[in-house]
Amino acid sequence: MSARPGSYRLTSPVWCVPVILFLAMFFIVPLAANLARTDAPQGWFFYYQKLLYDPYYAGVLWETVKVSLITTLACLVVGYPVSYFMVRHAGRWNALIVFCIVAPLLTSIIMRTFGWRVLLARKGLLNTLLMDIGLVTRPENLADDRIAVYIGLVHVLVPFMVLSITAVLQGVDVKLEESARVLGAGRSRTFLHVTLPLSIEGIATGCILVFVITNGSFLTMLLLGGSKITTLSLLIYQQFTTTEDIGFAAAMGNILILVAVLCFIVQYALLRRRNGS
Amino acid sequence: MTAWRRLFHSGSGATMLLTAYVILFLVFILLPIAAVIVVSFSSASYIAFPLPGFSVAWYAKMAANHDFTSSLTTSIELALVSACIGALLGCPAALALARSRGVGAGLLANLLLAPISVPAIVLGFSLLYFLSALSFGLSFGALLVAHSVVAIPYIVRTVLATYRAVSTNLEESASVLGASRWQVLWHVTLPMVRPGIFAGAMFAVLTSLDNLPLSFFFGTATVNTLPVVMLNYMQNNFDPSIAAISVVQMLIAVATLLVLDRVYGIERLTAA
Amino acid sequence: MTVLAPPLRLVDVSKSFGGVQVLKPLRLDMVQGEMLALLGPSGCGKTTTLRLIAGFEVPDTGSVVINGRDMTAMPPNKRGLGMVFQNYSLFPHMTVGENVAFGLRMRGASAAEKTKRVRAMLQMVRLESFEDRRISQLSGGQQQRIALARALATEPSILLLDEPLGALDKNLRERMQFELRDIQHRLGITCILVTHDQEEALTMSDRVAVMAHGEVKQVGHPTDVYERPRSRFVSEFLGTANIFTGTVKAQEGAAWRVAIDPRGCAEPLIAAETLQLGQRVTLAVRPEKLVLGPPKADAITARVRDIVFRGAYFAYELTLPNQEQPLFVYTQKREAVPDDGIVGLTWAPDSAVILEEPA
Fold first, then answer.
1. B135 inside domain
2. Residue B19 and residue A91: Cβ atoms within 8 Å?
3. pTM
4. Residue B19's domain spans which residues?
């Protein structure tokens, strides 16, 4: 057969070449170089062993996972009712709620974190109010504390959770819930057996997103934690600004990427299973 | 007001409880931002409530601070230029990938979207040492490269979604009517995906303006982005000038959004 | 003497996608000014044929010749065709006028020419005052007419219609069928209509090509194809058909006596050219050609199961003894049916068609 031209195509695969070259050069190669950078004089696994077995660094690793898990769970608990309300009850108020949730994205994280410092500081709004009511006699500095970090993280990340769940919940037909009610299930049983399972994909997406972003955050810990919380990202920042142990910082970065990749593989598998069935 | 009342009186106590909770939630979301706006107009040189008086002195002080103004300019230039580079690189690839099937196309799409998923602090750290080896580690160019890498996925994501929603029949119609490939692209495809390009570019700009973990590796004494300068200032001072510059930055973002809304409509932007 | 080349000639074009042959080698010549309908169920290859003609696909074998020029590998924009899609595909970011002018603009027509031509086209589809409207302000029927105006503005040599009326509701569709036919006659333009709607194909076309499984089963004038289908598929796809099998018993003048299965059922006369005694045949009779009467010796005995009033006619559903497949009879008047439902079915000798397939 002589070669015949294929079907009419507007675009060409060649159009992908510039971006592939750009990302290969400035994304893949640097990350690969980062992997090579952890080749310590003491051997390939030196830094990783140090991270896992040195009590201090193992503690940081554990703290990172703990902070991310608690933040994820808190975002889910705080955000799910809001998503449910937006889809089932908000009606014309929906646009306003969406605006309020998206609006913070127009402000910098520094601004939002600074806002929490203003609210939680010794002479901040919260203490002033509590003193006025008479609940507190001596003002406490609520910023620079673990709880402040969690408040700040949830504040920054809960919009992602709400938007993820809302997107999926919108696709759940209200008739399914009504059918369950007609079949005799009460409100809570309907929620547990119909609504919640059907929105599980949104929950998974939101949780993975929040978990991964928290893993990479350090600004909230830095500005609200008062050095009471040290996570891997914060440690990378500190290593870079103070000790400059490049190889060790690179190893920590690789661990963070590994966790992110694992999370997205889990998400991909969940999506595949759902589409497959 | 009637809708408001209906919201409260419709259904059971559970619904009312839920409504109250959502209102509380929105207060939680907006309160810190409102607090910063209020504090930026304080006349005191420290943060304390109640505010002793009203003043715009902190805005004046901020405007006179060369570090703030020059880094704000740098941040805006960086955000706009990196979004443009991201669009120039990402848009053609997204158009080529949108209607391709197969393993290769899927893998490539994942590669183009990957920079969002890598923690910015790790990407910034890795790029710094790589670019330093190429001897432009600390410069506007380095910042530009880093921010362009992150801009690409935002553009690709929205252009993919927008273009997949465009019926192939539109382009086929144009070609039967006599339009060459480039004419179809220029007169039909591009106008149809333009909202996607703008939406992606907007996300890229907003992300870039706030991307401290990526930026702080590349700053020099002369070239630095606003978040890095703010962080440095904040670690030594706790006064309302941070509030003032934050409000200015927020206003710039809001203005960008309003302009885009005027041009394209917010519905079409968020739909993408 | 110059012989005018046919406006379109398909020479053994075929096409496969992913190893599946969706179009078997197809030969087709069109006549200047005719409307040819490609009719068939989805997946029969009719849309692929149209896309090969338009240039969106390149055939694996064969060639597409338009007005005597081999256009097989020519891109769509150089073929000088017009096309109307089912979803109209009007450009939403342009006004009605800009849509109609698009083809002229691509050809670099002057502003004056564009204005003149757009006016003429909008007048033709009776939407003169709509030039500055947005596409989103048009109803489905109006969009359909604008799509037609846009396709015709460049004076294409052939107009391709891909289910052009598929998205309209029933009443509007019937009106548009006549309107489209009228415009086609006035312009004398050669048209190919792709449709899965047999009524639309019969109403609008000069010739119908019935397609199935990637090949053309029968081409001809709509009445010929309807009344003299050659295969069971064609007879059943174009309306309803009652299929019988039987054995040729005797010749009586220009007709043949056929013993219908099962044995002893009836032996009606069938008009046909050459049959052989003892030959097994399959025959089709249209429901409106069957005659209901009292049971008698030379009629097929059947039982009426249901009678439905369909507006223009009555539809009778009948069953033969020991047979699953029901029969259908359409009558203008409601016929008297005895209480036990047993009736006799007869037909005129030229009402039955012998199909080209063994029994």
1. yes
2. no
3. 0.84
4. 2-39
Tell me which chain A residues have a C-beta less than 8 angstroms from the C-beta of B185: 10
Q: How confident is the model at residue A4 (pLDDT cuts 50, 70, 90)?
A: low
B25 touches A: beta carbon within 8 Å? yes
Regarding whether B21 and B94 lie in a shared domain, the answer is no
Beta bridge partners of C300: C345
Q: How far apart are CA C309 and CA C325, in angstroms?
A: 21
Answer yes or no: is B56 within a domain: no
Ranges of residues in chain B whose predicted pLDDT is under 50: 1-2, 4, 6-10, 269-272
Quick one: B10 and B102 in the same domain?
no
Q: Of residues B216 and C263, which shows the higher confidence score?
A: B216
- What contacts C307, CB < 8 A, 6 or more positions away? C314, C315, C316, C317, C334, C337
CA-nearest residue to C54 within chain B is B176
Question: Which of C87, C93, C154 is nearest residue B177 as measured by Cβ atoms?
Answer: C154
Amino acid of residue B139: S
Residues in A lying within 8 Å of C, measured between beta carbons: 1, 4-8
Rounded Cα–Cα distance for residues B12 and A186 (Å): 13
In a domain, residue B54? The reply is: no
Q: What pLDDT is attached to residue B125? A: 87
Distance from the Cα of B198 to chain C's closest Cα (Å) equals 16
Q: Are residues B28 and B115 in the same domain?
A: no
Chain C nearest CA to A13, separation (Å): 18
Residue in B18, B112, B149 closest to A89 by CB: B18
State how far residue C286 is from chain B, nearest Cα, in angstroms.
39
The top-level CATH class assigned to C240-354 is mainly beta
B53 part of a folded domain: no
Q: Which residue has the tokens 């993975």?
A: A208
ipTM: 0.86
pLDDT tens digits, residue range A238-250? 887 776 678 888 8
Which residue among C78, C79, C85 sits closest to B169, beta carbon to beta carbon?
C85
Contact B213/A218 with Cβ under 8 angstroms?
A: yes
C62 touches chain A (CB under 8 A): no
Answer yes or no: do A16 and B97 touch at CB < 8 A. yes
* B154 and B24 both lie in a single domain: no
CB contact under 8 A, B180 and C77: yes
Same domain? For B169 and B259 the reply is: yes
Q: What are phi and psi of C30, to 5 degrees?
A: -105, 155
Domain ranges of chain C: 8-236, 240-354
Q: What are phi and psi of A43, to 5 degrees?
A: 120, 165
**Cα gap B65→C330, rounded to integer Å:** 93
Crossing angle for the helix pair A55-88 and A94-102, to the nearest 10 degrees: 160
Query: How would residue C129 be classed by pLDDT, with cut points 50, 70 and 90?
Result: very high
- Are the Cβ atoms of C60 and A7 closer than 8 angstroms? no
Taking contacts as CB-CB distances below 8 angstroms, the residues of chain B near C102 are 174, 177, 179, 187
B202 touches chain A (CB under 8 A): no
CATH (residue range C8-236): 3.40.50.300
Residues paired with residue C291 on neighbouring β-strands, in sequence order: C346
Cross-chain residue pair B126–A250, CB shorter than 8 Å: yes
Kindly list the structural domains of chain A, giving each domain's residue range(s) and its CATH number in brackets, ordered by start.
Answer: 44-91+158-275 (1.10.3720.10)
Residue-wise pLDDT for B49-100, tens only, equals 677 778 888 888 888 888 888 899 999 999 999 999 999 999 999 999 988 8
- Letter for the amino acid at C136? S
Q: Report, as an integer, the average pLDDT of C297-324.
A: 85
Per-residue pLDDT band for C168 (boundaries 50, 70, 90) equals: confident
Q: Do residues C326 and C319 make contact, with C-beta atoms less than 8 angstroms apart?
A: yes
Structurally, how many domains does chain B consist of? 2
Q: Do A15 and B120 touch (CB under 8 A)?
A: no
pLDDT tens, position by position, A24-50: 999 999 999 988 888 777 777 888 888
